[in-house]
Amino acid sequence: MASGKSIFFSLFTLLGLVNAHQTFPGRILNRASEVEQSYDYVVVGGGLSGLVVANRLSENPETTVLIIEAGGFTENEDWITIPLLSSANVPALGNGPRGTKYDWNMTGIPQPELGNRSIQTPAGKVIGGGTVLNGMVFNRGSKADYDRWVALGNPGWDFENLLPYFKKAENFTPPDSKVEEEGWDIEYDPAYHGEHGHVQSSFAPFVWPSTRNYINSMKELHVPNIEDAMGGNAAGAYWFTQSVNPKNETRSTAQGFYDPSRPNLHLLIGNRVTRIIIDSGKVKGVEFSAEENAARSTVQVLKEVVLSAGTLHTPQLLQLSGIGDKIHLSSLGIETVVDLPGVGSNYHDHILLYTGQIGNNQTWTSEQLALYESKKEGPYTTLGGNFFAFLPVGTFSNKTALLSAAVAQSKSQYLSSNTPATVRAGYETQFALLEKDITSPSTAYLEFIFADTAIIPALHQPFSRGTVSIKSTSPFDSPVIDPRYLSNPLDLALFVAGFEYARAIRKTNAMQTINVIETYPGASVTTNQQIEEFVRAGVDTEHHHAGTASMLPQELGGVVDPELRVYGVEGLRIVDASIVPMLPAAHLQATLYGIAEKAADLIKNSYSR
Q1: Annotated binding residue 134
Q2: What does the pLDDT look like over 545-595, one tens digit per residue?
Q3: Is the Cβ–Cβ distance between 402 and 493 less than 8 Å?
Q4: Where is the Glucose-methanol-choline oxidoreductase N-terminal domain (predicted)?
Q5: Are the C-beta atoms of 444 and 392 separated by less than 8 Å?
Q6: What single DSSP character describes residue 309?
Q7: Which of 240, 195, 308, 392 is nearest to 572 (CA)?
Q8: Maximum Cα–Cα distance for the chain, whole Å?
């Protein structure tokens, strides 16, 4: 005899099939009562990935799509739209949108290797997600970064296969003619760029004068200058594009993918998905609510739920829905639907370290802001820099010494002691790739951001891994974020080398001609121990969180397969940064646009066979 639950969903299915393709107006919804009974696809999260996937799926007018987003739209505040104000690369000008109502405002637990500091963990609670909060750098990693994903068991995810999707999302604008007239030799290759996508990428029309000194310093240190790093050769120094609309010099976000004119696309704002409803191994719908004490509502899904809640909330929703490590779920009284120990594991992030100080001349900043407001010119059209370097280990450190330190480690000895066996096996596979690439000239391990007189090293190939897990059965409680920053001493060694290399850059003739002095931490910090202490006290997140629902084989702690389908569940895919098994050496948004474009094709193709 069928259970009451099964009968309910059978009736729900029949009703849904009647209503599924009736014409209904595309609109922004605010209340559960406005939501249709069923949709072909329900997209959980209106951030970068969710908006891209929803856009591509709803291109077919016969396909109905609902996006559910906890946040709403921005009010186009200056600290959102103006590049220099909103990038937060210049702390003297404020933190931009981070820490505001558009941020989930979560904080990780105290980190032992950072002197028990807790690090704020920004994540977008807004239509557009992280593209509203980020620093707007629009670059890709090296070919080798993406080819690793194939080596980890994901055919079709190498750079060559991703490049068409990277280009599909992008609307590229070449350098402004005025910049060329000023003698800045910015090169690019049209073959690596798209012209018809919905996210703008452009070069700033203003170049900071110190950029020439940084370019020359790289030449002095024999760092190769890359013509166009978007083509897969990204280990060197290069000009970068920014996600800024050159028509009005304002931030370009994933909101460009939202098309409110489509009658088959609905967007519910101000509501949070609380659970994915699964019956007999198949997704039937989602449960959602406007707030913790409000009534829960449900909507049926006829084809698939696409989970795009982000690296921090995607594992939370999976665990609340009974998908995760059985031991952890049982401790909270949650019935296990699928025992997937990899859910919430393999968390990793890019972290940076400020060295030097960025100027704060209030008279000058007021004058330049007035110039921006009147003519859309000047430094406020930029992110605080135009040019940076992504360097392999052999450029900034003794690669032989670092390799020896890596070889001396047991590959998983610095993981948490309670790490599940499959997750441990997956990490050991990743560690082997990280170890091998220490000697590679084409794999960057550190980024060097050049902003005014500050040189900011950032770790882009971390060896440390953390976790994200639920602490209660309430979806309105923040998950426990334990990044475990610097838990592997190789990361600290890389930072020490990066700090010393930043000093080497300052000592070049090119930088000395403009009297660059290290004002922070200063010349008194000299010994290895002092530098390590400075690193531990100063590292912070680049908020490139990834990996908590990794695209890996299940025996390696994977959560999704190469088609982004969650193991053991029918009708559930994940499309966001949580699926990234190993971060590329790049700021994350351009990679995620490509992932989401590819994911949309995977979904559509699975129903056309």
Answers
A1: yes
A2: 999 999 999 999 999 999 999 999 999 999 999 999 999 999 999 999 999
A3: yes
A4: 124-147, 310-324
A5: yes
A6: S
A7: 308
A8: 84
Q: Is 135 annotated as a binding residue?
A: yes
Q: Give the H or E element holding residue 27.
A: strand 27-29
The H or E element spanning position 374 is: helix 362-375
Element (H, E) at 21: none
The contacts of residue 111 (CB under 8 Å, 6+ apart) are 117, 118, 119, 483, 484, 485, 486
Q: How far apart are CA 157 and CA 161, in angstroms?
A: 6
pLDDT digits (tens, 9 = 90+) for 200-249: 999 999 999 999 999 999 999 999 999 999 999 999 999 999 999 999 99
Mean pLDDT for the chain overall: 93
Say which CATH topology domain 78-171+199-251+345-606 has: Glucose Oxidase; domain 3 (3.30.560)
Q: How far is CA 62 from the centre of its chain?
A: 32
Residues pairing with 449 in the sheet: 388, 456
Contact 235, 162 (CB under 8 A): no
Residue 526 has which token pair? 């000299």
CB-CB neighbours of 421 under 10 Å: 10
The answer to whether 416 and 467 are in contact (CB under 8 A) is yes
What pLDDT does 9 receive?
A: 33
Distances in Å between the Cα of 169 and the Cα atoms of 48, 141, 269 are: 11, 16, 24
DSSP-H helix ranges across 409-550: 421-436, 489-506, 509-512, 528-538
Comparing 453 with 92, which gets the higher pLDDT?
453
Is 299 part of any known ligand binding site? no
The number of angstroms, rounded, from the C-alpha of 304 to the middle of its chain's C-alpha atoms is 23
- Alpha-carbon distance of 161 to 168, in angstroms, equals 12
Q: Kind and range of the H or E element at 400?
A: helix 399-408
Distance CA 46, CA 265 (A): 12
The answer to whether 132 is annotated as binding is: no
Burial class (CB in 10 A: 0-12, 13-18, 19+), 34: exposed
Q: Does residue 340 surpass a pLDDT of 50?
A: yes
Residue 412: its pLDDT value, please?
A: 87
- Going by the DSSP 8-state scheme, the letter that residue 364 receives in this structure is H
- Distances in Å between the alpha carbon of 277 and those of 308, 320, 322, 479? 16, 10, 10, 20
**Nearest alpha-carbon partner for 53 in 344, 349, 304:** 304
CB 259 within 8 A of CB 222: no
Distance CA 422, CA 553 (A): 9
List the chain domain ranges: 78-171+199-251+345-606
DSSP for 113-125 reads GGTTB--EE--B-
273 is in an annotated binding site: yes
Contact 484, 465 (CB under 8 A): yes
The encoded tokens of residue 311 equal 């690296």
Judge whether 14 and 560 are in contact, CB under 8 Å: no
Transcribe 210-229 into DSSP letters. Answer: HHHHHHHHHHHTTPPBPS-G
Helix (H, G, I), strand (E, B) or coil at 11: helix
CA-to-CA distance for 80 and 76, rounded, in angstroms? 6
Q: pTM of the prediction?
A: 0.94
3 state SS for 333-345 = CCCCCEECCCCCC
Expressed in percent and rounded to 5, the helix, strand and coil fractions of the chain are 35, 20, 45
Instruction: Please compute Rg for the chain using Cα positions.
Output: 24
Catalytically annotated residues: 544, 587
